[in-house]
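INFO batch 0412 | record 1 of 1 | parsing
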Amino acid sequence: MDPKLIAKVKRRDRIARRVITGGGLLIIFCVLAILLLIAEVALPLFLPPTARQHAELPLPAATAAQSALAVGMDEYTETAYLLLREGRFVFFDALTGEALRTIPVAPPAEGAGILRVSNNGLDHTLLWSDGSITIERIVFKPEFDAEGGRTIVAEYKRMVAFPPEARRRDATGLMGRIGEGGGGTAALLLPGGKLEVLTLSISENLFGEQQIQQAAYDVPLALNAPVSAMTMHPLGESLYLATELGTLYRWEISPKDGIAPLPVVQIFPEGEAITAMQPVFGGFSLALGSATGQVEVWFPVRQGEGNEFVFTQIHHLARHAAPVVAIVTNQGNKSLLSIGADGAMHLDYPTNERHLLDIALSQPPQAAFVNTRGNGMITLGDDGIRMWSLQVPHPEASLKAFFGKVWYEGYPAPTHTWQSSAATDDFEPKLSLVPLIFGTLKATFYGMLFAMPLAILAAMYNSHLMNPRLRRVVKPTFEIMESLPTVVIGFLAALWLAPIARVTLGTFFLLIAIVPLVVLVAVFVWERLATLHTVRRVLRGYEFITLVPVVLLAVYLSFVIGEGAERILFNGDLPLWLYQQLGVSYDQRNSIIIAFALGLAIVPTVFTISDDALTNVPRNLTAASLALGASRWQTVWKVVLPSASPGIFAALMVGLGRAVGETMIVLMATGNTPILDWSVFNGMRTMSANIAVEIPEAPFNSTLYRTLFFSAVLLFMATFILNSAAEIVRQRLRRKFGKY
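INFO prediction complete | emitting tokens
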């Protein structure tokens, strides 16, 4: 051969090898780059929170620490303020301490001064020396100039005012809240063991005129010890009093129905005082701190035969080494700042019991405030004002929240739940990935259960038992089926197949039994007919054609018998009977529909690869088997199938990967219910479908947004591990059965 031609061929081989190698490496690089991109978005979920003191400011001139009653700041951490006992709000720059504005608080009566203050975020309840009560709210408004510059304008509004009464001047406790839609509630502890509760409600009549209704209630107290802490629901719907013996007294407050006592609860062991308490954001839960440093969260849970609410201890938070002196709630999420008598401050997220931050001060602050975004904090002490920058971007995220059981508000027990949004802003995000992982496995299981036997048996028949001329038609048909858009399959499954399955459920179960039985009878008859030489010679390779009318007959019998049996035995509605008699609910888009739809999408993939593996088994093996007297079926089962097992296993793994990552079919045909239930009558929500459903509505870089990317990382890693394990198994099968 011409040496130049040989050199040219070798040169082209080297070029082709390098191009193929480079292309493969480029694909690997792109896949890894995609993984890193996804992981980079999800990584901040697990970064540790940080706190940094960025400013330490002296108190404004002529202001003593004892005269400061409250502190606060805006959500942008730019403007802060002090409430002074003299009746002034002093606003200043949160970074430099420069005084910006001073607003005097108008007394309800001339010469009245402030006796007591109760703070709830930016709301401040004031008890005046004339016995009147007002609730003042600080409002921060961003204003923009023509050049786009932003300025924070601060002001206060008097939201509620209660008329004076002289006896209130001796009150030992004060609490006030602004109600929903206007109005408010106030409560005072009076000498002599009395509790006064004031309510004010605002409504409109048919003519749009405002109607104001006020009421006052005197509640005699029979406490087992002196009051050690007092708080109120954020909207004034309930009142809590705690004693030095760890007992919690509760009342329900309604402007219409008045005040009603709730069952008394022993929070801490007798003798351990409740030293601080505060409702968690939303008001359903109550955080309590003890004299021994315990911090717990309680909320009502339905229990017993009467399904009544019982106030129950739910969460344990990080413990203090000293008594808890104050608990501060974030007005934007459910995180809690607990302060110990030794100056230690703990930031925790009660839902997942995640301990976020430790901040150590030499002594506890007189007042502390966390802004609504949770990224800024201000503390007031004898040494002045400290400004803190908090980096706690995703307190809801933790391994326990994603994979563990969490006890959510209003739930009877800890559970795995996915619910990323609700109608209100004060709900607990429920971000458990367990129902989504379970849904992915469930959909994959039922889809593979339908597709695997059909595809492999069809490939076995097509490769070695079917007539070659017919085989050249069947295999391309299957390959064309693989190109069918999954959105079309999902559409047909959801809108056509699901309603039919709902009204013919009995027929479906009969199909499972009758079709195989009729086919077995037909095969038995065929075995007898096949002994006839003419029949065997004419139908060799076309045997399946004779089964087509048999299968159609079996389907027809199933419909006829199923319709009559369902009408006689189940009053014509099997799904309703299942619910009434067995308590099994039937969702129209369920695992049965997924088995058909997802299985239909997987069958062409598994069939094509399995058929190639079976066809590539050397013919000398099959010829040797047939020569030794084995039948065609024995040859396929005993010789061909083991030899092709590595390829068949690879086909199953490809089909499994297709099922795990499928989106459109499961999105349209599952009902997208994230539940943990293996029942074939219920739907599910898979991880891929969840990403498709949630990502359009997820705020950019929010906890939900990053959690969806984290679930994508899990999908990626699961596929990688699955394929790696499959390759190991495939190689072992190749070593055992040969390289075919």
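INFO post-check: Residues 121-131+158-272 form one domain.
INFO record closed
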